[in-house]
Amino acid sequence: MARIIRTILAAGAAPLALAGCMGAGASIPSASTPITPSEAQQGAQYHPQFLAEFGGAMSGAQAAYVEQVGKNIAVQSGLGNARESFTVSLLNSPVNNAFAVPGGYIYTTRQLVTLMNNEAELAAVLGHEVGHVAARHSQRRQQAAQTNSILGVLGAIGSSILLGDSGLGETLSRGFLQGSQLLTLKFSRSQELEADDLGIQYLARAGYDRRAMGTVLASLAAQNTLDARLQGRNASIPAWASTHPDPASRVQGALAKAGAAAGGRSDRDLFLSRIDGLLYGDDPAQGIIEGSRFIHPELRLSFTAPQGFYMINSPRAVSINGQGGQAQMSTAAYNGNLDTYVRQQFSALGGQNSTLAPQRMQRTSVNGLSAMVGEARVNNGNSQVDVIVFAYEFARNRAYHFTAIAPAGRAAVFNPMFQSMRPISQADAGAVVPKRLQVVTVQRGDTIASLARRMAYADAQEERFRVLNALGSRDTLVPGQKVKLVVRAR
């Protein structure tokens, strides 16, 4: 979250405002129509905001490779000037995600690329997003949304291959979740399936294995299940995503549409050689999650999530999620007054027309840090929730805060987390080492178990290795085969 924090400290926490989004009466070009100047202008307007929300665009040979594959698959869409009109970005994000923006802007996160096992799967994911652009799905979603807010616009134009519609309509909840990568709203079930179909067509035209759409979705489903188990949550897509077909439900459909015959190329070894060394998981410059602990070596802070909760890190904030409530840790402009700072966070939660304010305020200290906590009980639909802002002063011009929401009377679940915030030493910061992908060749005598022990995790090493390499419970390795490991970068 460092990049966004630096921006906020420099410019303040003023909300973004977008203008000129497509109105309900606008006509939608057909799939064969080239990208129009107005679509290109719209995409260029939103592009910097998506880059900021998802960690920025990566550069170098790996990003250039992803861009090349993306533009090659875009040509298969039949859109005029596709190669020149599409912008393909590899995002520095630890979340498995890919999405598209009108005007030919398509994105995939580096984390999703590390989950892939060949170039055909990369082409499938990018082709899926090209399909959204070609079918003008974003424009249709925008017409339905009819909103000018940043949340509504990003929701209408953003397409994720994995997650579903948030459905969090209340202003309070929308403000609370801003900055989380779970925020980006998604397309309808039929639009996602149509994009799968188009992506498979593009694979065939480009000479790739058509089954790649199904296999990459299978890997996504397996990773989702493993993450859910490790985080102690339900593996099913949550209720707010119920309108979106999850990867597991799409696998068989994609494989059936691809046909039984293998056909086409996968370019596995080429792909693995190109992604070798790619950053895996959290970027230390944005902070890292180690089990239940979050550590930020640049900001020199650390905290621990409550038992039974899991965290998701993004450039803007760290979200903490569980059955007992939700929280996020972030920052805003600070003028040296914690009381004012806390009240400003309540006001921001409530939105522009809200009078949301703390009903109780208390000054305290936590691990040597001056702190202030504000609390309020508010109506949230047919129920009440407790809203807490717990802020800490790290310097005269620097503060961080938790915002937490829990059912009325149950916010104490976050107290251990509030009390765990602490500065860290330079030695602790220097001990943070990123993880990277390492491609190795299986040698005689190597087994899944022996290679999995080299994974940079203390738990579930073999499960992580199998999911990373799309290996089933009965699969084995053969000498000469290339596989991926996650190792500590030294």
Helix proportion of residues, in percent? Answer: 25-40%
Helix count equals 18
Number of domains: 3
Protein structure class: alpha+beta
What general outline do the C-alpha atoms trace?
A: globular
Report the span from N to C terminus.
23 Å
% residues in beta strands: 15-25%
**Radius of gyration over alpha carbons?**
23 Å
Mean pLDDT: 81
Number of strands: 17
* Strand order in the sheet with the most strands: 8-9-10-14-13-12-11
Uncertain stretches: 2-30, 145-185, 237-244
Largest sheet features: 7 strands, antiparallel
Concise synopsis of the structure shown:
The chain has helices at residues 2-11, 37-53, 61-75, 82-85, 110-115, 119-134, 137-145, 150-157, 171-177, 189-206, 212-231, 247-258, 268-275, 338-350, 415-420, 426-430, 448-452, 461-468; strands at 87-91, 98-101, 105-109, 279-280, 288-290, 293-296, 301-304, 310-313, 318-322, 325-331, 360-366, 369-380, 383-395, 398-407, 422-423, 435-441, 482-488.
Molecular structure report:
- The protein is globular, with a radius of gyration of 23 Å.
- It contains 18 helices and 17 strands.
- The relative contact order is 0.11.
- The longest helix has 20 residues, at 212-231.
- The protein has 490 residues and is of the alpha+beta class.
- It has a seven-stranded antiparallel sheet with strand order 8-9-10-14-13-12-11. A four-stranded antiparallel sheet has the order 5-6-7-15. Strands 1-3-2 form a three-stranded mixed sheet.
- 38% of the residues lie in helices and 21% in strands.
- It has three domains: 2-278, no CATH class; 284-430, Protein Transport Mog1p, Chain A (3-Layer(aba) Sandwich); 435-488, Membrane-bound Lytic Murein Transglycosylase D, Chain A, CATH 3.10.350.
